[in-house]
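User: Second chain of the day. Same drill as before.
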Amino acid sequence: MTAAIGARSGRSNVRIILIGNTGFASALRAHSGIEVIEVDSTLEAIGQASVGGERCVIVLGEIDLDSDRRSTFVGALRAVNDGVRIYTPMECTDWPAWMVDRLVDSAERLVEAAKKRDDPSDPEQAFAGESGSDIGPWSQAAEALLSGHSVLEVVLDSLRVWAGDETLMYHPADEGVSGASSVPVAHGDRTLGVLVGTVASPGKLAEAAKHLALWLTLEAQHHQLTRAAFRDPLTGAYNRRGFELAFDRAIARARDERRSVSLMLLDLDDFKRYNDEYGHEAGDAVLVSIVDLVRALVRPADLVCRIGGDEFAVILDDQGKKRVEGSQMPREFAALADRFAAALKVHECDALGKDSAGKLSLTGGLASYPWDGVTRAELLRTADRLLLEAKASGKGRIRLGRFSDDCS
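Assistant: Same format as last time:
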């Protein structure tokens, strides 16, 4: 179970991750500038530390780690987030009272010096100076993980060097491989596969299998956490957080490559009426139906996002020819807006009963970089203003920046 407790403000860019029962989660709710997350295991903590790139403060509650597991945990944390600080209750009986202030102070100092490495001699850190496991470089596996590539071959290469066995091979459980020179690769009560080697000793083979299981489980959880962090669970569209990250990157790329990128904000007209008339289950079906429709109308590379209850954003990333002096906003968006209007007139949603074609309508505003703004905030303001103007003129239409006419 993972639970977000606090709300992050613009002042802070730090997460406090509490592992197990720490006894002071409620006290941290008062600090709105810090995002506080509760997890049940060290593996969940590693996954949370790797998502988003924020500076992290980790607090171990009632978690029993021997020296080997602790070293492995610290190494994995350092690999996915080199700005992490780690605390334990140690022998302090009144730590909830003083630790809250210390955690917040530590988080704020991390914000101020986000690029500075922690000092291993800092007495505030319980064991952050430990170097991690002696099995291979963690950083290469972490780099593969965070860049979306498989960690399997990177970890196997490190294990082959450590074990002195170039024959090490991993076989997933569904391949049914077994034998005297194989050991299970398992995490908890789940067997992922087997590790086979003909040179390494049984002890080294077993130790290598433990490390491989950790990384494969971390990889799977990282994918799940990334999807949960950046996707809307109902529609599968990118959520607000995913939208902001993707749009910032698209703007930066457009700036660097002298291309354009456009933002289309869409609002589902009279959505409350569908909820009231047909029920919330039907309302959810309408939202899914709209996302499916929008995806079908835009290009595969364009990103569809749900940024509010009935509010959507589409990032239209232009990969065409570069901008030159005197370039104008791409005019194909007028045709795109017309396609939206035509598609909605015949679009059916089963949740609204028979003859649902034409019942749904979208109102939108479209702004383009650099003509309508050069930052996310500027483009959002422009697109939102255009959307409100379109609603005021009758709904069911999309108003484009730098164009005087609506498209409906």
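Residues 202-230 form the longest helix (29 residues).

User: Great, on to the next one.
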